[in-house]
Specification:
It is built from 21 helices and two strands. It is mostly helical. It has a domain of about 210 residues. It has a two-stranded antiparallel ribbon with strand order 1-2. Helix 1 runs antiparallel to helix 4. It starts with a helix and ends with a helix. InterPro entries: CPA3_Na-H_Antiporter_A, ND/Mrp_TM. It comes from Thermodesulfitimonas autotrophica. This is Multisubunit sodium/proton antiporter MrpD subunit. Keywords: Membrane, Transmembrane, Transmembrane helix.
Length: about 475
């Protein structure tokens, strides 16, 4: 029965989505209870996979064979568990947060919202536990489709335009680039299975070096959810979505599915030796380093709260790709662990942006003077997340940045250390002024904050995620243990 656990983690959300639609608006309390129960069950199924995996037992199941070497199949490994643990745990907190957010703002189409959320998390689990490129691509596309109604939720002109960009970039990139790369991989190797060390032999590398270089770049830009510049514009445009959706997009599922997929390709399709033989690492270093610094500089110029967070996300996603591309053990640990460290830090920040909007309807950073005195839980949590994003010791972000710097030094690339240090300074430059405004500046119009107070349905989940930025910073051992099984 153990092999059914990945299917259970996927199907519990699909079942929940069906029940949510059936219940509809007739009984909102029951509808939301289904979401919460499904989230707890999903997380439980994921946790149940950890002991047998660490004992060395194989958890794998094949559903169907499509063509020779192309299966619909699932397999649990350390990288998939790392992604699934974070996503399933944060879905539970996001559901509680969503209830407070959606009800406080009396948002329309709440049934559709919670149903699409459930389908999105089912797709995320499919990506995490896919045993091959074919299965991963199917669920990758399903995640895009399931989140389109969430991005365009408000159904106004701006939301529909954001949804249009979302579709063009993500579906277009996957179809034009990623699918072409998958076809090239299958033609050359006869299989799409993930394998430690990769599936591309040295002989193939020597014979088809140029084609394999092209395919790798197609993967990087085909998995457009990773938002490597210049294919990043969809991500800030998607900020028109409700804040819990933004948290899903930027911290839990969508963007992490992009960098996760690229990490899979680098480590388990190409493999470290093939990447080195192709001589393409420097190109990937340039693309990711450019994205890290440029996106951070753009974030400095944005007054809209969620827009600043969005460009910060664009920057931090490339930390993960850069870490994996460096291929030293420390760099891979730093890149992969940043999936979780960034998730908890950034979801806290988006939750705070939403909490501020629910309580005060303020969306611009210049409007936040003094709001920390009215919303101390939210803004203190934002401070903790900020310290993590900067990389201050004992916080989650320090762990990933420490390993990334160590990895860059290990391969003799001090210039990449400069990229990480510069990015951290820019993080401080665009996040700390928000904290300063909130606690130390007086509002231009004191009466504008008279009715502002914490919404604790929103504040409690964000405080929990903020405290996890400390917990993971002090005790990262379990996540590192999972990642070392990948290396």
């Amino acid at each position: 029965m153990m092999e059914l656990l990945p299917l259970c983690a996927i199907c519990v959300s699909l079942l929940a989505a069906g029940l949510i639609v059936l219940i509809g608006d007739r009984n909102p309390n029951l509808r939301e209870a289904v979401s919460i129960i499904a989230g707890v069950l999903k997380f439980s199924f994921v946790v149940m996979m950890i002991p047998p995996f660490l004992e060395g037992k194989e958890i794998a199941i094949k559903i169907a064979t499509i063509l020779p070497g192309i299966d619909l199949a699932f397999k649990v490994d350390g990288l998939g568990l790392l992604f699934a643990i974070g996503a399933s745990f944060l879905w539970v907190l996001t559901t509680f947060y969503s209830i407070g957010y959606m009800r406080s703002l009396q948002e329309h189409a709440q049934t559709r919202y919670f149903a699409c959320f459930a389908i999105s998390l089912a797709s995320t689990m499919g990506i995490a536990f896919a045993s091959n490129l074919f299965t991963m691509f199917i669920f990758y596309e399903a995640l895009t489709i399931a989140t389109i109604p969430l991005v365009a939720h408000k159904e106004d002109k701006e939301s529909l335009e954001g949804g249009r960009q979302y579709v063009i970039y993500l579906l277009g990139g996957a179809k034009l680039f990623a699918l072409a790369a998958i076809v090239i991989t299958y033609i050359l190797t006869g299989t799409l299975e993930f394998r430690h060390g990769g599936i591309i032999s040295q002989e193939l590398t020597d014979l088809h070096k140029g084609l394999l270089q092209l395919a790798l770049l197609l993967y990087v830009y085909g998995f457009t959810k990773a938002a490597v510049m210049p294919l990043h514009s969809w991500l800030p445009a998607a900020m028109v979505a409700p804040t819990p959706v933004s948290a899903l997009l930027h911290a839990v599922a969508v963007v992490k599915a992009g960098v996760f997929s690229i990490a899979r390709v680098i480590l388990h399709v190409y493999g470290p030796q093939t990447i080195k033989s192709l001589g393409i690492q420097d190109i990937l270093f340039i693309l990711t380093a450019f994205t890290i610094i440029t996106a951070s500089c753009i974030a400095l110029t944005r007054d809209n709260f969620k827009a600043r967070l969005a460009f910060s996300t664009v920057s931090n996603l490339s930390y993960i790709i850069l870490g994996v591309t460096m291929l030293s053990p420390a760099a891979i640990v730093g890149g992969l662990i940043h999936i979780s460290m960034h998730a908890f830090s950034k979801i806290t920040m988006f939750f705070v942006a939403g909490s501020v909007y629910v309580s005060s309807h303020k969306t611009e950073i210049s409007q936040l003077n003094g709001i920390g005195r009215k919303m101390p839980v939210s803004m203190f949590s934002f401070l903790l997340a900020t310290l993590s994003m900067i990389g201050i010791p004992v916080f989650a972000g320090f762990v990933s940045k420490f390993y990334l710097v160590e990895g860059a030094l290990a391969i003799g690339k001090p210039i990449l250390v400069g990229v990480f240090v510069t990015s951290s300074l820019l993080n401080a430059a665009y996040f700390l002024p928000i904290v300063y405004r909130a606690f130390f500046m007086n509002p231009d119009d004191p009466t504008s904050l008279e009715s502002v107070k914490e919404n604790y349905f929103c504040a409690i989940p964000l405080l929990i995620t903020a405290l996890f930025t400390i917990l993971l910073g002090i005790y990262p051992d379990f996540l590192i243990k999972l990642i070392k099984t990948v290396i």
